[in-house]
Specification:
By secondary structure, this protein is α+β, with helices and mostly antiparallel strands. About 50% of the residues lie in helices and about 15% in strands.
Length: about 450
Protein backbone atom coordinates (compact mmCIF):
# COMPACT_ATOMS: atom_id res chain seq x y z
CA UNK A 1 0.00 0.00 0.00
CA UNK A 2 1.37 3.40 -0.99
CA UNK A 3 0.70 6.10 1.51
CA UNK A 4 -0.84 9.41 0.44
CA UNK A 5 1.59 12.15 -0.48
CA UNK A 6 0.26 14.28 2.36
CA UNK A 7 1.56 11.67 4.78
CA UNK A 8 5.01 11.50 3.17
CA UNK A 9 6.29 14.64 4.91
CA UNK A 10 9.99 13.87 4.59
CA UNK A 11 11.02 17.44 5.24
CA UNK A 12 9.66 17.41 8.79
CA UNK A 13 12.52 16.63 11.21
CA UNK A 14 11.94 14.15 14.01
CA UNK A 15 11.49 15.59 17.52
CA UNK A 16 14.41 15.61 19.93
CA UNK A 17 14.51 12.98 22.64
CA UNK A 18 13.71 15.52 25.33
CA UNK A 19 10.54 16.51 23.43
CA UNK A 20 9.16 12.99 23.12
CA UNK A 21 6.04 12.38 25.14
CA UNK A 22 5.89 8.91 26.67
CA UNK A 23 2.55 7.26 25.91
CA UNK A 24 0.43 5.70 28.65
CA UNK A 25 1.41 2.12 29.37
CA UNK A 26 -1.24 -0.48 30.12
CA UNK A 27 -0.57 -2.59 33.21
CA UNK A 28 0.31 -6.22 32.62
CA UNK A 29 -2.15 -8.83 33.85
CA UNK A 30 -0.34 -11.93 35.06
CA UNK A 31 2.56 -11.28 32.65
CA UNK A 32 5.17 -8.58 32.30
CA UNK A 33 5.96 -6.35 29.34
CA UNK A 34 9.72 -6.84 29.48
CA UNK A 35 10.98 -9.02 26.59
CA UNK A 36 13.87 -11.13 27.98
CA UNK A 37 15.59 -11.52 24.61
CA UNK A 38 18.59 -9.65 23.21
CA UNK A 39 17.71 -7.45 20.26
CA UNK A 40 20.42 -9.16 18.18
CA UNK A 41 18.83 -12.57 18.85
CA UNK A 42 15.35 -11.28 17.99
CA UNK A 43 16.64 -9.76 14.77
CA UNK A 44 18.31 -13.04 13.84
CA UNK A 45 15.03 -14.91 14.39
CA UNK A 46 13.11 -12.48 12.19
CA UNK A 47 15.77 -12.53 9.48
CA UNK A 48 15.66 -16.33 9.32
CA UNK A 49 11.98 -16.41 8.32
CA UNK A 50 11.78 -18.55 5.14
CA UNK A 51 9.26 -16.22 3.46
CA UNK A 52 11.86 -13.44 3.09
CA UNK A 53 13.84 -13.10 -0.09
CA UNK A 54 17.53 -12.22 0.03
CA UNK A 55 16.70 -8.66 -1.06
CA UNK A 56 14.03 -8.29 1.62
CA UNK A 57 16.43 -9.64 4.25
CA UNK A 58 19.01 -7.04 3.33
CA UNK A 59 16.44 -4.25 3.32
CA UNK A 60 14.99 -5.33 6.67
CA UNK A 61 18.48 -5.55 8.17
CA UNK A 62 19.24 -2.03 6.97
CA UNK A 63 15.95 -0.75 8.39
CA UNK A 64 16.73 -2.28 11.79
CA UNK A 65 20.22 -0.76 11.77
CA UNK A 66 18.71 2.66 11.11
CA UNK A 67 16.13 2.14 13.86
CA UNK A 68 18.88 1.07 16.25
CA UNK A 69 21.01 4.11 15.38
CA UNK A 70 18.02 6.43 15.82
CA UNK A 71 17.13 5.06 19.26
CA UNK A 72 20.79 5.10 20.30
CA UNK A 73 21.11 8.76 19.37
CA UNK A 74 17.95 9.66 21.27
CA UNK A 75 18.96 7.67 24.36
CA UNK A 76 22.39 9.22 24.29
CA UNK A 77 20.70 12.58 24.75
CA UNK A 78 18.67 11.20 27.66
CA UNK A 79 21.81 9.67 29.16
CA UNK A 80 23.59 13.04 29.10
CA UNK A 81 20.60 14.77 30.67
CA UNK A 82 20.37 12.11 33.39
CA UNK A 83 24.12 12.27 34.11
CA UNK A 84 23.91 16.04 34.51
CA UNK A 85 20.91 15.68 36.84
CA UNK A 86 22.72 13.09 38.98
CA UNK A 87 26.10 14.84 39.11
CA UNK A 88 25.38 16.98 42.23
CA UNK A 89 24.23 13.85 44.13
CA UNK A 90 26.76 11.22 42.98
CA UNK A 91 28.63 9.89 46.06
CA UNK A 92 31.27 8.26 43.83
CA UNK A 93 32.17 11.30 41.71
CA UNK A 94 35.89 11.87 41.21
CA UNK A 95 35.54 15.13 39.29
CA UNK A 96 35.54 18.65 40.64
CA UNK A 97 32.15 19.78 41.98
CA UNK A 98 30.18 22.06 39.70
CA UNK A 99 27.56 24.57 40.74
CA UNK A 100 27.06 24.88 44.50
CA UNK A 101 23.38 24.47 45.32
CA UNK A 102 21.65 25.90 48.36
CA UNK A 103 19.33 23.65 50.37
CA UNK A 104 16.11 24.68 48.61
CA UNK A 105 17.59 24.35 45.15
CA UNK A 106 19.17 21.03 46.10
CA UNK A 107 15.80 19.64 47.22
CA UNK A 108 14.17 20.75 43.97
CA UNK A 109 16.95 19.14 41.90
CA UNK A 110 16.70 15.94 43.95
CA UNK A 111 12.97 15.65 43.25
CA UNK A 112 13.61 16.26 39.53
CA UNK A 113 16.24 13.52 39.57
CA UNK A 114 13.82 11.07 41.20
CA UNK A 115 11.18 11.91 38.58
CA UNK A 116 13.62 11.35 35.70
CA UNK A 117 14.83 8.09 37.20
CA UNK A 118 11.32 6.77 37.80
CA UNK A 119 10.39 7.47 34.15
CA UNK A 120 13.50 5.57 33.05
CA UNK A 121 12.52 2.60 35.22
CA UNK A 122 9.06 2.64 33.68
CA UNK A 123 10.67 2.53 30.23
CA UNK A 124 12.50 -0.61 31.44
CA UNK A 125 9.16 -2.11 32.56
CA UNK A 126 9.86 -2.03 36.30
CA UNK A 127 6.98 -1.97 38.79
CA UNK A 128 6.94 0.30 41.82
CA UNK A 129 6.50 -1.24 45.29
CA UNK A 130 4.28 0.56 47.78
CA UNK A 131 5.27 1.28 51.37
CA UNK A 132 2.88 -1.46 52.51
CA UNK A 133 4.56 -4.05 50.24
CA UNK A 134 8.00 -3.09 51.56
CA UNK A 135 6.82 -3.35 55.17
CA UNK A 136 5.21 -6.74 54.49
CA UNK A 137 8.59 -8.10 53.39
CA UNK A 138 10.10 -7.29 56.79
CA UNK A 139 7.61 -9.51 58.63
CA UNK A 140 8.86 -12.76 57.09
CA UNK A 141 12.24 -14.30 56.37
CA UNK A 142 13.46 -17.23 54.29
CA UNK A 143 15.84 -19.88 55.52
CA UNK A 144 18.65 -18.30 53.49
CA UNK A 145 18.14 -14.67 54.45
CA UNK A 146 18.51 -12.30 57.35
CA UNK A 147 15.56 -11.19 59.49
CA UNK A 148 15.79 -7.42 59.88
CA UNK A 149 13.70 -4.53 61.15
CA UNK A 150 13.39 -1.48 58.90
CA UNK A 151 13.63 2.02 60.33
CA UNK A 152 12.00 4.21 57.68
CA UNK A 153 12.98 7.35 59.60
CA UNK A 154 16.52 7.08 58.19
CA UNK A 155 15.20 7.90 54.69
CA UNK A 156 14.34 11.31 53.38
CA UNK A 157 13.01 9.59 50.25
CA UNK A 158 12.95 5.93 49.26
CA UNK A 159 11.71 4.21 46.11
CA UNK A 160 11.84 0.47 45.34
CA UNK A 161 11.17 -0.99 41.89
CA UNK A 162 11.07 -4.63 40.81
CA UNK A 163 10.86 -6.66 37.63
CA UNK A 164 10.50 -10.37 37.00
CA UNK A 165 8.05 -11.59 39.64
CA UNK A 166 8.82 -15.31 39.40
CA UNK A 167 8.98 -18.46 41.49
CA UNK A 168 12.60 -19.40 42.03
CA UNK A 169 14.02 -22.64 43.37
CA UNK A 170 16.55 -23.11 46.15
CA UNK A 171 18.12 -26.13 47.82
CA UNK A 172 18.09 -26.78 51.56
CA UNK A 173 18.73 -29.48 54.15
CA UNK A 174 16.54 -29.97 57.22
CA UNK A 175 16.82 -32.23 60.24
CA UNK A 176 13.36 -33.71 59.80
CA UNK A 177 14.41 -34.78 56.28
CA UNK A 178 17.61 -36.34 57.69
CA UNK A 179 19.57 -33.54 56.01
CA UNK A 180 18.77 -34.83 52.54
CA UNK A 181 19.01 -32.15 49.84
CA UNK A 182 15.59 -30.90 48.73
CA UNK A 183 14.40 -28.13 46.41
CA UNK A 184 11.77 -25.63 47.47
CA UNK A 185 9.94 -22.86 45.64
CA UNK A 186 10.66 -19.29 46.71
CA UNK A 187 8.88 -16.12 45.39
CA UNK A 188 11.65 -14.05 43.82
CA UNK A 189 12.25 -10.74 42.06
CA UNK A 190 14.68 -11.19 39.17
CA UNK A 191 15.65 -7.52 39.34
CA UNK A 192 15.28 -5.02 42.17
CA UNK A 193 16.28 -1.34 42.06
CA UNK A 194 16.63 1.04 45.00
CA UNK A 195 16.97 4.80 44.90
CA UNK A 196 17.05 6.67 48.19
CA UNK A 197 18.18 9.82 49.93
CA UNK A 198 19.09 9.65 53.61
CA UNK A 199 17.74 11.85 56.37
CA UNK A 200 19.80 13.37 59.16
CA UNK A 201 19.49 10.38 61.50
CA UNK A 202 21.79 9.22 64.30
CA UNK A 203 21.86 5.68 62.92
CA UNK A 204 23.44 6.98 59.68
CA UNK A 205 25.98 9.38 61.16
CA UNK A 206 28.73 8.33 58.72
CA UNK A 207 26.58 8.61 55.59
CA UNK A 208 26.40 11.49 53.13
CA UNK A 209 23.02 13.19 53.50
CA UNK A 210 23.51 15.27 50.36
CA UNK A 211 23.92 12.18 48.14
CA UNK A 212 21.39 10.04 46.27
CA UNK A 213 22.18 6.32 46.33
CA UNK A 214 21.09 3.97 43.54
CA UNK A 215 21.53 0.20 43.61
CA UNK A 216 20.39 -2.75 41.49
CA UNK A 217 20.26 -6.39 42.60
CA UNK A 218 19.35 -9.72 41.05
CA UNK A 219 17.36 -12.74 42.27
CA UNK A 220 16.14 -11.25 45.55
CA UNK A 221 13.68 -13.33 47.55
CA UNK A 222 10.61 -11.26 48.35
CA UNK A 223 10.93 -11.95 52.06
CA UNK A 224 14.55 -10.73 52.08
CA UNK A 225 13.95 -7.32 50.53
CA UNK A 226 14.65 -5.48 53.77
CA UNK A 227 18.23 -6.74 53.97
CA UNK A 228 19.13 -4.47 51.05
CA UNK A 229 18.21 -1.30 52.93
CA UNK A 230 20.54 0.72 55.17
CA UNK A 231 19.63 1.56 58.74
CA UNK A 232 18.15 -1.86 59.50
CA UNK A 233 18.80 -3.85 62.68
CA UNK A 234 19.01 -7.61 63.16
CA UNK A 235 15.80 -9.10 64.51
CA UNK A 236 16.32 -12.40 66.33
CA UNK A 237 13.84 -15.18 65.58
CA UNK A 238 12.22 -17.23 68.33
CA UNK A 239 14.65 -20.07 67.61
CA UNK A 240 17.61 -17.71 67.94
CA UNK A 241 16.30 -16.30 71.23
CA UNK A 242 15.82 -19.83 72.53
CA UNK A 243 19.38 -20.76 71.59
CA UNK A 244 20.67 -17.76 73.51
CA UNK A 245 18.41 -18.04 76.57
CA UNK A 246 18.48 -21.83 77.03
CA UNK A 247 22.08 -22.09 78.33
CA UNK A 248 21.39 -19.45 80.99
CA UNK A 249 18.08 -20.98 82.11
CA UNK A 250 19.48 -24.50 82.16
CA UNK A 251 22.58 -23.25 83.97
CA UNK A 252 20.46 -21.66 86.67
CA UNK A 253 18.54 -24.89 87.03
CA UNK A 254 21.70 -26.97 87.38
CA UNK A 255 23.14 -24.47 89.87
CA UNK A 256 19.97 -24.54 91.94
CA UNK A 257 20.00 -28.35 91.96
CA UNK A 258 23.62 -28.47 93.12
CA UNK A 259 22.95 -25.86 95.79
CA UNK A 260 20.02 -27.94 97.03
CA UNK A 261 22.17 -31.04 97.21
CA UNK A 262 24.74 -29.19 99.31
CA UNK A 263 22.11 -27.58 101.54
CA UNK A 264 23.22 -24.13 100.42
CA UNK A 265 19.95 -23.16 98.78
CA UNK A 266 18.00 -23.57 102.02
CA UNK A 267 20.50 -21.44 103.91
CA UNK A 268 20.29 -18.76 101.24
CA UNK A 269 16.51 -18.74 101.45
CA UNK A 270 16.50 -18.59 105.24
CA UNK A 271 19.39 -16.36 106.13
CA UNK A 272 20.77 -15.05 102.87
CA UNK A 273 24.41 -14.89 101.95
CA UNK A 274 25.65 -14.47 105.56
CA UNK A 275 24.02 -17.74 106.60
CA UNK A 276 25.56 -19.53 103.63
CA UNK A 277 29.01 -18.20 104.43
CA UNK A 278 28.64 -19.18 108.09
CA UNK A 279 29.10 -22.78 107.09
CA UNK A 280 32.86 -22.39 107.08
CA UNK A 281 35.23 -23.13 104.24
CA UNK A 282 32.94 -25.55 102.43
CA UNK A 283 30.07 -23.10 102.63
CA UNK A 284 32.20 -20.38 101.09
CA UNK A 285 33.48 -22.76 98.43
CA UNK A 286 30.01 -23.98 97.55
CA UNK A 287 28.65 -20.45 97.34
CA UNK A 288 31.56 -19.35 95.11
CA UNK A 289 31.08 -22.39 92.87
CA UNK A 290 27.41 -21.68 92.36
CA UNK A 291 28.08 -18.00 91.67
CA UNK A 292 30.86 -18.80 89.19
CA UNK A 293 28.61 -21.29 87.40
CA UNK A 294 25.85 -18.72 87.01
CA UNK A 295 28.28 -16.07 85.75
CA UNK A 296 29.79 -18.57 83.34
CA UNK A 297 26.42 -19.42 81.81
CA UNK A 298 25.56 -15.72 81.50
CA UNK A 299 28.85 -15.02 79.69
CA UNK A 300 28.25 -18.01 77.41
CA UNK A 301 24.79 -16.71 76.53
CA UNK A 302 26.23 -13.30 75.70
CA UNK A 303 28.79 -14.81 73.34
CA UNK A 304 26.08 -16.99 71.80
CA UNK A 305 24.23 -13.76 71.01
CA UNK A 306 27.33 -12.26 69.37
CA UNK A 307 27.91 -15.45 67.36
CA UNK A 308 24.32 -15.49 66.11
CA UNK A 309 24.52 -11.84 65.13
CA UNK A 310 27.82 -12.46 63.28
CA UNK A 311 26.15 -15.33 61.45
CA UNK A 312 23.42 -13.00 60.23
CA UNK A 313 25.95 -10.40 59.13
CA UNK A 314 27.91 -13.05 57.23
CA UNK A 315 24.76 -14.21 55.42
CA UNK A 316 24.00 -10.60 54.55
CA UNK A 317 27.51 -9.98 53.19
CA UNK A 318 27.41 -13.14 51.08
CA UNK A 319 24.01 -12.24 49.64
CA UNK A 320 25.01 -8.70 48.70
CA UNK A 321 28.33 -9.85 47.23
CA UNK A 322 26.75 -12.20 44.71
CA UNK A 323 23.45 -10.40 44.11
CA UNK A 324 24.57 -6.78 43.69
CA UNK A 325 24.78 -5.87 39.99
CA UNK A 326 25.73 -2.18 40.05
CA UNK A 327 25.70 1.04 42.06
CA UNK A 328 24.93 4.74 41.56
CA UNK A 329 25.96 6.10 38.12
CA UNK A 330 26.61 2.54 36.92
CA UNK A 331 22.93 1.74 37.47
CA UNK A 332 21.92 4.67 35.27
CA UNK A 333 24.13 3.42 32.41
CA UNK A 334 22.78 -0.12 32.74
CA UNK A 335 19.13 1.01 32.72
CA UNK A 336 19.62 3.40 29.80
CA UNK A 337 20.99 0.47 27.81
CA UNK A 338 18.09 -1.77 28.86
CA UNK A 339 15.50 0.84 27.88
CA UNK A 340 17.15 1.31 24.49
CA UNK A 341 17.20 -2.46 23.89
CA UNK A 342 13.55 -2.78 24.86
CA UNK A 343 12.56 -0.01 22.43
CA UNK A 344 14.47 -1.76 19.65
CA UNK A 345 12.87 -5.14 20.37
CA UNK A 346 9.36 -3.71 20.39
CA UNK A 347 9.91 -1.70 17.19
CA UNK A 348 11.62 -4.56 15.29
CA UNK A 349 8.88 -7.07 16.06
CA UNK A 350 5.90 -4.73 15.63
CA UNK A 351 7.05 -3.36 12.28
CA UNK A 352 8.00 -6.81 10.94
CA UNK A 353 4.58 -8.28 11.76
CA UNK A 354 2.72 -5.33 10.23
CA UNK A 355 4.96 -5.47 7.15
CA UNK A 356 4.79 -9.22 6.53
CA UNK A 357 1.46 -10.34 7.98
CA UNK A 358 -1.02 -7.48 8.35
CA UNK A 359 -1.30 -6.86 4.59
CA UNK A 360 -2.65 -3.74 2.91
CA UNK A 361 -5.77 -3.68 5.10
CA UNK A 362 -3.74 -3.59 8.31
CA UNK A 363 -4.59 -4.73 11.82
CA UNK A 364 -6.39 -3.24 14.80
CA UNK A 365 -3.81 -2.35 17.48
CA UNK A 366 -4.99 -5.13 19.80
CA UNK A 367 -4.39 -7.71 17.07
CA UNK A 368 -0.78 -6.56 16.78
CA UNK A 369 -0.33 -7.14 20.51
CA UNK A 370 -1.82 -10.64 20.39
CA UNK A 371 0.16 -11.62 17.30
CA UNK A 372 3.45 -10.39 18.82
CA UNK A 373 2.77 -12.38 22.02
CA UNK A 374 1.97 -15.50 19.98
CA UNK A 375 5.16 -15.10 17.93
CA UNK A 376 7.39 -14.84 21.00
CA UNK A 377 5.67 -17.80 22.64
CA UNK A 378 5.99 -20.02 19.57
CA UNK A 379 9.51 -18.95 18.60
CA UNK A 380 11.30 -18.97 21.97
CA UNK A 381 8.72 -19.91 24.61
CA UNK A 382 8.52 -16.43 26.14
CA UNK A 383 5.23 -15.36 27.74
CA UNK A 384 4.95 -11.56 27.76
CA UNK A 385 2.30 -8.87 27.71
CA UNK A 386 3.50 -7.10 24.55
CA UNK A 387 3.27 -3.32 24.92
CA UNK A 388 1.74 -2.64 21.52
CA UNK A 389 0.71 0.90 22.52
CA UNK A 390 4.32 1.92 23.06
CA UNK A 391 5.50 0.10 19.93
CA UNK A 392 2.87 1.86 17.78
CA UNK A 393 3.75 5.21 19.38
CA UNK A 394 7.40 4.80 18.38
CA UNK A 395 6.65 3.63 14.83
CA UNK A 396 4.13 6.41 14.20
CA UNK A 397 6.53 9.03 15.53
CA UNK A 398 9.12 7.77 13.04
CA UNK A 399 6.43 7.73 10.29
CA UNK A 400 6.89 4.01 9.64
CA UNK A 401 3.26 3.16 10.44
CA UNK A 402 -0.01 4.97 9.76
CA UNK A 403 -3.54 4.55 11.11
CA UNK A 404 -6.35 4.29 8.59
CA UNK A 405 -9.70 6.06 9.11
CA UNK A 406 -11.02 2.69 10.30
CA UNK A 407 -8.41 2.66 13.10
CA UNK A 408 -6.23 -0.06 11.58
CA UNK A 409 -2.42 -0.07 11.55
CA UNK A 410 -0.67 -0.17 8.17
CA UNK A 411 3.08 -0.37 7.69
CA UNK A 412 4.76 1.85 5.11
CA UNK A 413 6.49 0.02 2.29
CA UNK A 414 10.04 -0.91 3.14
CA UNK A 415 11.33 1.52 0.49
CA UNK A 416 9.39 4.39 2.10
CA UNK A 417 10.47 3.32 5.56
CA UNK A 418 14.17 3.26 4.62
CA UNK A 419 13.92 6.62 2.92
CA UNK A 420 12.24 8.28 5.90
CA UNK A 421 14.66 6.88 8.45
CA UNK A 422 17.65 7.83 6.32
CA UNK A 423 16.33 11.35 5.78
CA UNK A 424 15.58 11.77 9.49
CA UNK A 425 19.06 10.52 10.42
CA UNK A 426 20.67 13.02 8.06
CA UNK A 427 18.64 15.84 9.62
CA UNK A 428 19.79 15.02 13.14
CA UNK A 429 23.09 16.65 12.21
CA UNK A 430 21.72 19.27 9.84
CA UNK A 431 23.19 22.76 10.08
CA UNK A 432 22.48 25.93 8.03
CA UNK A 433 24.43 26.41 4.83
CA UNK A 434 27.33 28.73 5.58
CA UNK A 435 30.37 29.47 3.44
CA UNK A 436 33.38 27.37 4.40
CA UNK A 437 36.19 29.40 5.97
CA UNK A 438 39.40 29.74 4.03
CA UNK A 439 42.19 27.39 5.05
CA UNK A 440 45.03 29.64 6.17
CA UNK A 441 47.63 26.92 5.70
CA UNK A 442 46.73 26.53 2.02
CA UNK A 443 46.82 30.26 1.53
CA UNK A 444 50.33 30.46 3.02
CA UNK A 445 51.54 27.54 0.94
CA UNK A 446 50.38 29.14 -2.29
Amino acid sequence: MTLPASQDANNIPLPAASEIETPPVAPAVGREQFIPLRKADLLRLLMEQPTLTSTEREQFSQLCRLLEATFHYEYHQRWEELKNAYAPFDPDADTLPGEVLDENRRNVCAHELFDRFIKLLQRCDFQRLSREEIEAASHTVTEWGVNLEIDFDVFDQLEVFVRGDVIGRRSRRRLRKWYRLEEVEVPTYQRLVLIFRLADHEAMENAAYDAVYIKIFKNIHKADLEMLLPGTSVKMTLVDRTKIAFPTVSGLGVSAYKATQMGLLGKLLKGGVVAALAGGFWGIFAFAAVGATMIGYAVKSFFNYLTTKDKYQLNLTRSLYFQNLDNNAGVLARLIDEAEEQDCREAFLAWYLLWREAGPDGWPPETLGKRAEAYLENAVGIHVDFDYRDAVHKLRRLRLVEITPQGRLVAASIAHALHRLDHAWDNYFHHPEVPAPEDASLKTAS
